[in-house]
Amino acid sequence: MLLRQLEYLVALARERHFARAAAACFVSQPSLSAAIRRLEHELDVPIVRRDRRYEGLTPEGEVVLAWAHRILAERDALHQELSALRGGLAGTLRLGIVPTALPAASLLTTPFCERHPGARVSLESLSSAEITHGLAEFELDAAMTYLDDDELRHVRRFPLYEERYVLLTPADGPLATASTARWADVAALPLCLLSPRMRNRRIIDECFAADGATAAPAIESDSVAGLYAHLPGGRWSSVISHAWLHMFGVPDGLRVVPLVGPAHGPRVGLVVARSEPQSVLAEALLKVAREVGVRDALDALLKTYLGAGG
């Protein structure tokens, strides 16, 4: 059995299509198909259900796939540990991040790369469900996500910061000069918010509801960048996480107003799988996270913007 055959199987299970899997592995489709058939012959079990196209894995194939993930993870861990013994980490840290935490990611990845110049970081914006799957299947080394997510199981958690929500509103708006604003007051403004399928939006809706209000935004976006693109011009207000200020700041003509009320923002943190083997790169990232003080950096940034009057 060759490791390459296991890599082809993992790619096929991920892509669910022979041609796409072959392209992802930079080989021809006949080469990939032949390798999978050799693997079936060597293990003496059917792995792939075939008709004219890929139909999924057999029960035996699911078992082989689970072992393939584990064996390839062991190989990667071996390379990482040996590189550390040679004097420096090498390899690629695969980091999954929920979209609303992406603006703060550089607070971790930049010091990580500075400390380990031989290592690289591959960031992937993923949903909570995709992160859970990626960790379980050894497709991710670590993830930056909401720590209170019920889907997260068998992981180690390291808190980074608690989301603090603030209002971004036009400088001539009715709440621009207020020292604080309540969620019920914000609900009456012309709003631009993330779409309901985003976890952050569902959390924000819960905050509005806790203050007896319902938000009815005129514009919804499935990305933080799309939301920010609508804010300049003095027409729209938005509720944002203070972590977004690290990347996007405060557009001209807007003010930052802290939100108060009965609800508190959720914790965002790093998670790594408890399963073996442990990723050397993930452990190195956790060490950086313990030392850089993401929470303090974001709180100081928010204080700066509030002290500057937005």
From TrEMBL:
Pfam families: HTH_1 (PF00126), LysR_substrate (PF03466). It comes from the Bacteria. GO terms for cellular component: cytosol. The keyword Transcription applies. Residues 1-58 form the HTH lysR-type domain. The keyword DNA-binding applies. Keywords: DNA-binding, Transcription, Transcription regulation. InterPro entries: HTH-type_LysR_regulators, LysR_HTH_N, LysR_subst-bd, WH-like_DNA-bd_sf, WH_DNA-bd_sf. One of its GO terms (molecular function) is DNA binding. Transmembrane segments: none annotated. Belongs to the LysR transcriptional regulatory family. This is LysR substrate-binding domain-containing protein.
